[in-house]
DNA sequence: TGCCGTCTCACCCCTTGGGGTGATGTCGGC
DNA sequence: GCCGACATCACCCCAAGGGGTGAGACGGCA
């Protein structure tokens, strides 16, 4: 059989299991992998050809947006479809800017989910009700729309933001990302300026208040 | 048939659908209702006899803890089993104090979930791995244990903690509390030591992770 | 009475962090 | 080809923060 090859990425095993059931009921779809975090997802993408990655945004280890950016970089033919609890504007924009082909919320009907997987596999887009497909290109093309929470940050800065939000010090960041401390400080300064935050303490507050990190995104 | 009558309460339709599938596979269980929020759940409990309510904690309209309290009040025979993404201490305690008979996280295995439903229906308890059933009574009986997150702090230090969690600098704190900067630094140091936190950034993280401040406890 | 905990404050240290400026190299678009 | 965005790094400055020590005032309690 040559169905659409799909990988599930979600930290909830129960949800992965049920998604597998739901999607496997559609004979066009073949769920070939499921993993619990972004890091594992990237490993799979490196090794296997996939058509669609169904990805949660909120995950431990590596969040969905960063994972999406990495996946579209190393496997441009693979479509990433976000599936998440939140329809938060900033996350939608962040995910789409990272290269996601669609964005569904978890209250989607099972049948609609399967259809959406087929849609993105065929190169079209899938968005939760109300949002038009044209929005995708618009968001990608418009050079600078201020959508507040993370918008305006470069991918690297988003990465830095994530580490700041988890309480990392500059030296820890420069170790984790293999950068010089001066570089880290440059990025941190850019993040503070662009988000109009006073210091890294307020970065953490901003992150939690906007749901950009959640419980269980524990520092270690 | 006279299976265990179960209602599902979760705002994610997809999860409800899959839970229904998973649970219906067990012939001891009969899923008789599913609703999207606590308010609707209470309406159902008023009208029908139920054995087990499988309840998410995070929901719009009426949260799971409040709904649980109301359900055990109006239908003491009905067992409430929390099913949630978080295994956060405060939420566990809150749910159990509200009268929940069990607390599972969503990474539970499908088979274990079905078994847990049967367990609570028969009057026993179900807790996520590692937590003993005896904890339930203990938690309910102990009058008021400061849930460790702020344990050991003096009143003044708790006050300082609150300001730290909202992103205040030392100078702002000394202005707000009319103290010398040296005093503020002493208190801050005490807070960091007692909670075993590295710096004020981690104080903010600690506060959010333990639900000591929430959304909308905005800095200003 | 003396002891202890708490709150207050002072002085010292030095690392960390925020802010400014500027210089590379690379990449993609016009 | 040029230009802008991005990422990288280097220097500078200095305020803010974390850490140690010690000490005076006040209250409760044995």
From TrEMBL, chains A, B:
The keyword Oxidoreductase does not apply. GO terms for biological process: phosphorelay signal transduction system; regulation of DNA-templated transcription. SUPFAM superfamilies: C-terminal effector domain of the bipartite response regulators, CheY-like. The modification 4-aspartylphosphate is found at residue 56. Residues 5-121 form the Response regulatory domain. Residues 146-211 form the HTH luxR-type domain. This is DNA-binding response regulator. It comes from Streptosporangium carneum.
């Amino acid at each position: 059989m040559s169905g659409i090859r799909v990988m599930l990425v979600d930290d909830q095993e129960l949800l992965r299991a049920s998604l597998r059931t739901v999607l496997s009921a559609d004979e066009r779809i073949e769920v070939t992998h499921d993993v619990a975090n972004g890091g594992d997802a990237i490993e799979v993408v490196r090794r296997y050809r996939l058509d669609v990655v169904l990805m949660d945004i909120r995950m431990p280890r590596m969040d969905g947006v960063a994972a999406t950016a990495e996946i579209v970089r190393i496997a441009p033919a693979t479509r990433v479809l976000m599936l998440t609890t939140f329809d938060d504007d900033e996350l939608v924009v962040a995910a789409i800017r990272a290269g996601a082909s669609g964005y569904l919320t978890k209250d989607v009907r099972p049948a609609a989910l399967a259809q959406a997987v087929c849609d993105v596999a065929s190169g079209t887009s899938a968005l939760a009700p109300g949002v038009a497909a044209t929005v995708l290109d618009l968001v990608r093309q418009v050079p600078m729309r201020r959508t507040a929470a993370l918008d305006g940050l470069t991918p690297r800065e988003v990465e830095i933001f994530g580490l700041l939000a988890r309480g990392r010090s500059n030296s820890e960041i420069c170790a984790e990302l293999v950068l010089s401390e001066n570089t880290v400080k440059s990025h941190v300064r850019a993040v503070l300026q662009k988000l109009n935050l006073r210091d890294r303490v307020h970065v953490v507050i901003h992150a939690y208040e906007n749901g950009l990190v959640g419980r269980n995104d524990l520092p270690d």
